[in-house]
Amino acid sequence: MRSEIRFLLNGKTQHVSDVAGDLTLLEWLRGQPHLRGTKQGCAEGDCGACTVTVARPDAMGRLEYRPVNSCILFLGMIDGSAIRTVEGLASPDGKLHPVQSAMVATDASQCGFCTPGFVMSLYAAWQNGRGLSANDVDTTLAGNLCRCTGYRPIIDAASMLDHGRDGDLAKTDMVNDAAMLVALSSAKDQQDDICLGDGATRFIAPATSASFAEIYAKEADATIVGGATDVGLWVTKQHRKLGTFIWTGRVAGFDQIETHSDFMRIRPAVTHQQFLHHNADDLPECAELLRRFGALQVRSSGTVCGNVANASPIGDLPPVLMALASKIELTKASKTRILDLENFFLDYGKQDRQSGEFLSAILVPQGPAPHLRCYKISKRFDQDISAVMLAANLHLDDGVITDICLAFGGMAGIPKRANLAEAKLAGKPLDMAHFKAAAAALMDDFTPLSDMRGSAEYRLLTSQNLLIKYGLELISSRQMRLAGADLAVGLEGWS
């Protein structure tokens, strides 16, 4: 087990040891190499002022530049990666990077505090060769907030970027970073576990699944870290001393989605962005939800398994995965067990997980789900926590409802199915009278709480309206399909 991490910072090799296991990348950047262009705004991964890029080679040796919030990323999580900050964009002779030049040309900065974060988010998109149409700009910058300039000049800067014109520069950075990363660590280095920090606060990064399971079985009180999009806040906002962290992100194979004939197997380090790309065609409703509940910085770090294992009653993914009839795999040392995801959540803060057992995979049925709908109600459209979340799915057999699941977030202490409402719909024809009866049954399914995101009365009424909306959408869609089929049959008579 080695006690140092190795990475690239703006094209230069770094070897770091003798730091606390809970030190964040932002703290280190501003305190050690004194790179203070990266700012601390919210310290919770919300404002984007601390955005930097992280790149690691994939199986083909290609680099993907991911924007991340360095304020909640632990330093141990960047081993073997190429980090780029705003100070690393201009050429050695002082010539500005095209992204920086565009920001200057459009007067896209006023106080300048948030500007480095915007620049780095645009740099990641530019470096990856992605177009920046109006829709792309919104997605690219959803995780960056500006309090004084307004967004129009920033969007203008993004729109004037021409990746093709400066493609050689992007390729040069990519080739240089990839070559230096290969030289940075040997095959043996990649197989070694890492332990960063002292006895009080340790950050352990196992290299293999067997090592991860063995370490966690022995250190069951340790905190498992996926993307740190939640655990990072425990440190930066709650100032908790967590002792030992065990990170999933360095384990070989943990970042894979394994596709089988009838299900996909999502491993512990698969990010929300990976999941979005993988399911954009088959599960567009889920993909759109993922775009909303976390900006690129969050989706590039946060993990699907982490979102489920966190077991938050207002987490957005558990209801969706429940609606898809997903199962989970739990591992302790060399033993595994599988259970339905809905049975994993027992009570607030309590899951069916034994000491030393971790969530090693989520098993999601393969293929499209044409009747899946995901409804997220939040005060802010992008990157906000839900007040109420409904994931609904059913099958239709000749117009009759079968295999229905109505899974809610924000309505109880756990993500929970509305069993009584489901019973009002199961075996019934697709008719609004039955959806209204199911909506009324939600009063007996849930006793929601009041908090800053909504009162109990608001949550109940909203959940009922969402269920009615689901019925209206399905019935309207079916009627349109049937009308289209009738029209097609009628037209055949004219041929």
Characteristic terms for this protein:
alpha+beta, five-stranded antiparallel β-sheet, 17 helices, 36% helix, 20 strands, single chain, 495 residues, five-stranded mixed β-sheet, 21% strand
Please explain how this structure is put together.
Helix content is 36%, strand content 21%. The termini are far apart. Helix 2 (98-105) packs across helix 5, helix 10 packs antiparallel against helix 11 and helix 16 (432-445) runs antiparallel to helix 17. It has 17 helices and 20 strands. The mean pLDDT is 91. The strands form 5 sheets. A 5-stranded mixed β-sheet has the order 2-1-5-3-4. Strands 10-11-16-12-13 form a 5-stranded antiparallel β-sheet. A 4-stranded mixed β-sheet has the order 6-7-9-8, with helices on one face. The protein has 495 residues and is α+β, with helices and mostly antiparallel strands.
Topology:
Elements: E1 4-9, E2 12-17, H1 25-31, E3 51-57, E4 63-69, E5 82-84, H2 98-105, H3 115-127, H4 134-141, H5 152-159, H6 167-184, H7 187-191, E6 194-197, E7 202-205, H8 209-218, E8 223-225, H9 231-236, E9 244-247, E10 257-259, E11 263-266, H10 272-279, H11 284-293, H12 296-301, H13 304-309, H14 317-323, E12 327-332, E13 335-340, E14 345-347, E15 350-351, E16 358-365, E17 373-377, E18 388-397, E19 400-409, E20 416-417, H15 419-425, H16 432-445, H17 456-492
Parallel strand pairs: 1-5, 7-9, 8-9
Antiparallel strand pairs: 1-2, 3-4, 3-5, 6-7, 10-11, 11-16, 12-13, 12-16, 14-15, 17-18, 18-19, 19-20
Helix pairs in contact: 2-5, 10-11, 15-16, 16-17
